[in-house]
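User: Just a sanity check before I run the rest of the batch. Below are the structure tokens for the first item. I only need the designed sequence back.
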């Protein structure tokens, strides 16, 4: 059974029906205002289609990690205000997510109107996929749309639990697009290049193990490259390494070798004595004992860019160095520009990688910028996403 889509739901008619939409509006707040509305804008397409069709939309999202406690600084009210401005229509807000107050607010909606609920993670049962909470959400809805790809890998009450109690359900346009675009990594035009960066092998081990025998080339950057190099016996100085992951790194290398995948590691490095924005750096082929690697070197950046140029499908997740500091962002920028210049299909997932792309103004030259880092990693591994599976179950 395929995943039902918003097209399917609209074809059956939604006028006058309450449609519970789970979106990912987990945006940064600065002084009580939305600091970056990228995720809000990503939700607009699905919302506009439903509202134009006469649906009475009940919108839910999480914000931050309140851990089941009500925290004023994590209220969704500023998000609701920004959403209303972008939609150019009045947006109602309810400071509860379930219960009589939320049910009354949902019942008062008229065709084409929108109600935003408070942060669902104020409820301790949300992350536990509590059945009572899921039923409470379902009491607000005649139909359910999941458009929150960023949390689709979580079995939470508003992403998986509610679907059991709402007979009509569908994937929103954003969720559907994510599944389609990331699907090219699962079934790629070859050569397939996977570029993985970040701090720790432990954070990316599962995807490394899945992609090593699947990809044609696997490029590794960021601090986790030093765990691979140290596992080979190379000098890494004071660079961040995970000694307990040496065997894992060797296993990934063996899987790549056995699968005919070229695994590339840095051959030169930008190193410093202390990690600070104004630290004096140098480029070396071998990391001195008293220094640490903070970025791939220029020769490595050129080699990685050349690998990108020959690929027909590219998946990139994770920076090549400490890109938050401009002095150590050159490696990440070189990869970002190479991916943007590539004639192959490109998929970029993960907040840091997407941030690097947007910082350079290259977003419109990337095939797909994923809204979900963890979800995108699990999907390309071939894992089932609970938020998607819940839509498909009878």
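Assistant: Here's the designed sequence for the first item:
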């Amino acid at each position: 059974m395929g995943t039902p889509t918003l097209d399917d739901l609209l074809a059956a008619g939604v006028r006058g029906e309450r449609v519970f939409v789970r979106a990912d509006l987990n945006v940064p707040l600065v002084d009580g205002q939305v600091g970056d509305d990228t995720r809000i804008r990503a939700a607009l397409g699905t919302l506009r289609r439903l509202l134009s069709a006469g649906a009475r939309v009940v919108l839910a999202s999480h914000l931050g990690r309140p851990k089941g406690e009500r925290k004023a600084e994590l209220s969704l009210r500023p998000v609701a205000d920004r959403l209303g401005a972008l939609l150019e229509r009045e947006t109602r807000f309810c400071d509860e997510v379930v219960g009589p107050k939320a049910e009354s607010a949902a019942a008062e909606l008229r065709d084409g109107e929108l109600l935003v609920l408070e942060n669902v993670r104020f409820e301790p049962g949300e992350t536990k996929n509590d059945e009572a909470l899921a039923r409470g959400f379902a009491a607000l809805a005649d139909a359910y749309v999941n458009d929150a790809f960023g949390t689709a890998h979580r079995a939470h009450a508003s992403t998986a639990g509610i679907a059991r109690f709402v007979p009509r359900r569908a994937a929103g346009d954003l969720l559907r697009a994510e599944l389609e675009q990331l699907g090219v990594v699962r079934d790629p035009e070859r050569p397939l290049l996977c570029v993985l960066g970040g701090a720790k092998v432990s954070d990316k081990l599962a995807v490394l193990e899945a992609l090593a025998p699947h990809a044609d080339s696997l490029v590794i950057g960021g601090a986790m490259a030093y765990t691979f190099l140290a596992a080979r016996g190379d000098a890494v100085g004071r660079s961040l390494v995970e000694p307990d992951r040496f065997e894992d790194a060797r296993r990934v290398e063996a899987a790549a070798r056995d699968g005919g995948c070229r695994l590339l590691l840095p051959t030169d490095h930008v190193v410093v004595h202390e990690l600070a924005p104004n630290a004096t750096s140098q480029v070396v082929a071998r990391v001195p004992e008293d220094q640490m690697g903070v970025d791939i070197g220029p020769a490595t950046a050129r080699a990685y860019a050349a690998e990108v140029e020959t690929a027909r499908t590219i998946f990139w997740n994770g920076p090549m160095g400490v890109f938050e500091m401009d002095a150590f962002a050159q490696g990440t920028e070189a990869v970002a520009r190479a991916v943007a210049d590539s004639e192959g299909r490109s998929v970029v997932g993960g907040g840091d990688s997407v941030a690097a792309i947007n910082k350079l103004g290259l977003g419109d030259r990337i095939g797909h910028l994923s809204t979900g880092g963890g979800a995108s990693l699990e999907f390309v591994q071939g894992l089932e996403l609970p938020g998607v599976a819940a839509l498909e179950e009878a």
